[in-house]
Design goal:
Elements: H1 25-39, H2 42-49, H3 60-80
Amino acid sequence: MLEAGQKPIGVQPFAAIYGPAKMPREIVERLARDVAAVMARQDVKDGVARYAFEAQSSTPEQLLEFHKAQLEIWRRSARELNLVSD
């Protein structure tokens, strides 16, 4: 963005696991627990770090809040840049 003469945008690259809408809560919670256990393993952390990422997990609620925050960053940036969609 700086090279284009714009202010930097504070977006954060991430990856997440998603399921279908209205997935039963017990399945969501089990997946969240299992993913957290895998992401806490040192071999997984080391493998992800090779690609300059940090292995971490979150609750479904934390992921929702992350999405909301990132969406607001994109909205604000689009307004500041006077971007419009057709």
